[in-house]
Design a protein that fits this description.
2 copies of one chain form a homodimer. The first copy, chain A, has about 220 residues and is mostly helical. Chain A is about 70% helix and about 0% strand. The first copy, chain A, has helices at about 10-30, 35-45, 45-55, 55-70, 75-80, 90-100, 105-115, 120-145, 160-180, 190-210. Chain A is elongated. The structure holds a DNA duplex (30 and 30 nucleotides).
Chain lengths: ~220, ~220
DNA sequence: CCTGCTAATGATCGTACGATCAATATAAAC
DNA sequence: GTTTATATTGATCGTACGATCATTAGCAGG
């Protein structure tokens, strides 16, 4: 950076992609109060160039939201959760490994938290998506594993949803500690996820049995 | 606020307390990027007055950290956790009810998260406090409840700590959903805490039994 | 090699914001 | 009521930051 970097002329598509990519990393690190000049400097371009591609800073931010949160959800995850050829424990472990790899990244976690603190609706919408596509299917599978009635015969209770949230919270909080608090965490993520599913699934099965008044027996999980 | 509010002259102690109090609420709401002018306006004072009490904005922020995080930890909580006159389940429920009431408030949760995202060391220090004063005592009590050896005979494993974190994470995440994502949560907090402790404690006991190779029997919890 | 299109830049504008300071007014002391 | 100490204010400074625009220069087409 000592000598003035030679001016490079990219196609609009390339440049836009580069800006969005850099913005995701930049805003994830410093928050949306980060300055456009500093972002530009990190990208090796001038600040006014940003405004050729995004009319305002807010437009760029919304593009970052889109890029990070839209399309990271993979429909095959839903199929995985419901695939009764595998034991539920295995399905949950496989799901959370995939989810951690694709969704719970440094950028995702931090931008998600910044968005929440900024009062964006994004998080509420994401939580609704999660309840519909993950937690309710998980509760349904827990019902099955516990030998309890299907949800269409006995509605899923708030407590069962909270039990499913506990599984999710345990995984999520691991990444909050890692990427937000920068605390030491168990280094073996795969082992952590397996153990976490074991612990939290036990509790969820117990909740469901209690709710559905299924006699307490060892179910085939 | 239509007519100019009459100038009121408070004792330095009163005014300082008022500013700190207002700053906690203000920064919890909008983050530390919030403007001193707006804070002053909410307090009904002029912006330069802030600078009579705090040399810089950063000094005020650090005072807010102090006020919120120092001294909210109550030593009697540690006594409660270790009081074997009560069943462990009851102790944990009582602790988390008290902790939620005194620590996991709107201001606390949001300032804690803002501080984490800003890269403050505060959170790491708090996590260390929590491990030493809460999680390790909890693990010790779980050992006792599970009929497993005391920590001085068999060191507490990383997995046991993570299991204790799961109890904590489940309670904590409830408040993150409530105060950061502003999502709907189970309205009956007392019931939520009781159920959460039930679910997560089961898993933690199982982890400890597995680790300590205690034959799987129904322990007196 | 020349030409034209437009990606990219440098200079700059307006405002917001942290911070400062001399001037003012309030409450306590007598 | 008068005086005095100081809490509080109004005016203002310097800079940072989002945004704008005329100018410059890289690359494709001929």
């Amino acid at each position: 950076m000592t000598a003035a970097a030679k001016r490079r002329r990219l196609s609009p598509e390339e440049r836009e992609a580069q800006i969005v990519d850099g913005a995701i990393r930049f805003f994830a690190e410093v928050g949306f109060a980060g300055q456009t000049r500093e972002l530009a400097q990190r990208l090796g371009i001038t600040q006014p160039l940003l405004y050729r591609y995004f009319p305002t800073k807010q437009d760029l931010i919304e593009r970052v939201y889109e890029e990070v949160f839209i399309g990271r959800w993979k429909p095959e995850w839903e199929a995985l959760i419901s695939d009764r050829a595998l034991p539920l424990r295995e399905r949950l472990i496989a799901f959370y490994r995939a989810y951690a790899a694709d969704a719970l990244t440094y950028e995702w976690i931090r931008i998600y938290m910044f968005a929440g603190l900024a009062g964006e609706n994004l998080n509420r919408r994401y939580i609704e998506l999660l309840e519909g596509r993950l937690l309710i299917p998980v509760c349904t599978e827990i019902r099955h594993a516990a030998g309890a009635p299907r949800p269409d015969r006995l509605p899923i209770s708030g407590l069962e949803i909270e039990a499913a949230w506990n599984i999710h919270a345990a995984v999520f909080y691991y990444f909050v500690r890692k990427f937000i608090y920068r605390a030491r965490v168990e280094p073996d993520l795969a082992a952590y996820i397996a153990d976490t599913v074991d612990r939290t699934l036990d509790g969820a099965l117990a909740v469901t049995r209690r709710w559905a008044e299924v006699p307490c027996r060892k179910a085939a999980v």
